[in-house]
Write a structure and sequence with these properties.
Keywords: Methyltransferase, Transferase. Pfam families: HTH_5, Methyltransf_23. This protein has 13 helices and 10 strands. It is of the alpha/beta class. It folds into 2 domains: 3-93, Winged helix-like DNA-binding domain superfamily/Winged helix DNA-binding domain (Arc Repressor Mutant, subunit A, Orthogonal Bundle), CATH 1.10.10.10; 120-309, Vaccinia Virus protein VP39 (Rossmann fold), CATH 3.40.50. The mean pLDDT is 92.
Length: 310
């Protein structure tokens, strides 16, 4: 950054509305219209604020389908950006803004739930074009075994699908829970696990588990996070659900540009940059432990990230 850029860099965050935008982007990426609604600002005005923040390097944009979503910058210019983001995360949102944020999250969650209710069978067929359980499951299990966790620990899988991974977890741990927003997918998991299974299945999400004061030693997301309405908020929930020294293991797609996955597989996000996941986890007290990559067909690549609750 040149000396002449400093004024624009700091001026971009001198506006209270733009600071609140950065605060909101700590929970998820948002489009212009969503941000306009949450802050009760005209769309043209919000576009101007985002242009200022983007030009100064405070936010990045990415296209998701027909929309452009904004997120916090992954960089750390002058060693102040990430520090400011951490400070903003400690500040409460105004109540009207928080209410609008919760409404948008609920709308996204409803769309995701409706997709799996209506397309559960087709989803499996389309998902085969990206990745099958046999592609990533053995790798994730090998990584899990290398961690040498106690069989007495409490383990959670979020969005277990047909239950293949739950079945493998039940062979390793005595206390295994699966939670899913879709009753259709839970029914498939029940059938796959069979009669007499000790796995507990819950209809709901991480909000449901926090409401029950549940805590876990290991949490898995297997090819699920790209379906989640607000991925960073989901990781924040996991940090609250994990016991001390607990681990979060995320297996998901690396960033890609194959738009068909959105319509045919219900993907809300086209994968994630590893650094994006690392920063989200770090903001919520989870330390990055290790990474594994798995090359797949059709131009997709799967990553597995392990984070510890330190």
């Amino acid at each position: 950054m040149n000396l002449s850029d400093y004024a624009a860099f700091f001026k971009a965050i001198s506006d209270p509305t733009r600071l609140t935008v950065l605060q909101l982007l700590g929970s998820s990426a948002y489009g212009v219209l969503e941000l306009s609604e949450m802050l009760d600002v005209k769309q043209s005005g919000m576009s101007h604020h985002l242009k200022v923040l983007s030009k100064a390097g405070w936010v990045d944009s990415r296209r998701e389908g027909n929309s452009i979503y904004y997120r916090r910058s992954l960089g750390d210019a002058l060693n102040v950006q990430q520090q400011l983001f951490r400070e903003l995360d400690q500040q409460p949102l105004p109540e009207p803004v928080l209410a609008q944020q919760q409404r948008i999250r609920a709308e996204r969650l409803t769309r995701a739930r409706q997709f799996f209710v209506e397309h559960a069978n087709e989803f499996v067929l389309h998902q085969e074009r990206i990745v099958l359980f046999e592609h990533y499951g053995p790798e994730a299990l090998q990584l899990l075994d290398s961690l040498q966790r106690s069989p007495h620990e409490r383990v959670l899988e979020v969005g277990p699908g047909k239950g293949e991974f739950l079945k493998a977890l039940a062979q390793r741990f005595q206390l295994v829970v699966g939670v899913d927003i879709s009753p259709v997918m839970l029914a498939q998991a029940t059938d796959h696990l069979g009669h007499g299974s000790s796995v507990e299945l819950i209809e709901g999400n991480t909000d449901t588990l926090l409401g029950q004061a549940d805590r876990f030693d290991i949490i898995f997301y297997n090819m699920v996070l790209h379906h989640v309405p607000m991925p960073e908020a989901e990781i924040a929930q996991c940090a609250l659900l994990l016991n001390p020294n607990g681990v979060l293991i995320v297996t998901d797609l690396c960033r890609h540009d194959q738009e068909w996955a959105r319509d045919q597989c219900g993907d809300q996000w086209l994968g994630f940059e590893p650094e994006e996941l690392h920063q989200w986890a770090g903001r919520h007290g989870l330390a990055h432990d290790q990474t594994r990559f798995l090359a797949l067909r059709n131009g997709f690549q799967v990553q597995t990230q392990v984070y510890r609750n330190v």
